[in-house]
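Morning. Coffee machine broken again, so started the prediction first thing and wrote up yesterday's gels while waiting. Chain of 480 residues, entered below exactly as on the submission form.
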Amino acid sequence: MTSSTVDDLDTDLDPSRLTAGNLLDRDLAKVVAFAESGLFEEYVVYENHGDWVIAAGILGSVVMTGRTVTTTWDGVDSVSDWSDDPALALQDSLAALPVQHWNAYGWVSFEFSAYTHCVPAGRPLGESTLAHLIIPRVEITFGRSLGDDIVVTGGTPADAAALTDVLRRVTAVVPPSSGAVDVFTDTDSYRERAAAAIDEVRRGDYTKVILSRTVPVTFDVDLPNTYRVGRLANTPARSFLLNLGDIAAAGFSPELVVAVDGRRRVSAEPLAGTRALGVGPEADAAARNDLEEDPKEIAEHAVSVRTAFREVASVSTGDSTTVTDFMSVRERGSVQHLASTVRGLLRDDLSPWDAFAAVFPAVTASGIPKRESIDAIARLDNGERGLYSGAVVRASSTGTLEAALVLRAVYQQQGRTWLRAGAGIVAQSTPDREFDETCEKLTSVAPYLIRRQHPSAVEVSGTEVSGADAFDVSAFDVEG
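Came back before lunch.
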């Protein structure tokens, strides 16, 4: 393993004026500089409360479809069939990697849950990707806990110097938003579909389902700068920027689906119950009071917490499962939510992927009971969700795992760009109110879309570089 720490010098942000806000922007500018450098074609950027890791290049990968798992190492593919348990298949594929220590980054689609919960109607046909994880050639960490340092792990000193040179070249200038997206028009029959779900709930088919709608974006979006501007305007639990396979996305996750830390503590953070935020101090306070007193929102949150508690308890020891924070209000960009935290201690005979399988998909993105709600989503939600309401995942051979819920994001795939948001349908729902809730959530992203204005390339040491072969990565390893 090669690891180097380099002082972060010579930005155009005056050190005497580095407030918390522009410290955040300085780190976001590093992400943009990396993404625009063209040094790597595929990468995952993952943020946890002001600490960033950029996982770049591919030493190995695990890609799962509804039929097979393809493990690639050093350019050589190994394809195997899987059945019954997709989480176990991912676990076994990662455990079989020809390296003792690894960190994996990537995403899991919502449709992964149809296999976990045995929902035939929800299983995608063909070769839709259910999970895409990479073992990166290099990891770059920086942020609040590292101060002015940038740590580059993997590769040669020359490689580290090239990356550090790129990350130093940050700018305090934030590009203006230059694209308008109408999120207030119902273009895909959301109210009609919500009414159908309300009827099914009242009939007793299930208790709750989250239905979503898609809003197309008709201009070419600059994802790295959208991530930067959107992150400055949001207060996520986690955030991410990724480009893997044929999909790219930038998002501001409002909650963790599940996390397992180094002490084998399992955490889930269900959010349910929503009101708008950012209208003004008085309106925001009134909305918060209404949220905390609304019987429909309280009931919706309580049943979600009960489900999360049972799921965490199913993989935890004895009576270790507790609710450590119940029904507080957490602000997430343009909305505020009722939020709780559930924790337990993972049983000795189980792995973090067992915890993932128990909790995924988030109850706040699927419904109650999960099997019936996933089936309803497959029937009523206008096509596969893919990355939307799935998870961005980071996992390690040391036994840690985090899965951040993919909401409040912008997506690009095969020439299309879109936004997507949903709302929880219960017996007390009305189609108009649930539609309004999707608008409130879409406003966390839509105003911050940046139109692409220039090709993705920068100069490094006087030479223009672009693509995965811009510098030598042959000496990278992933230990640690």
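The first strand starts at residue 3 and ends at 7. Going to sketch it on the whiteboard this afternoon.
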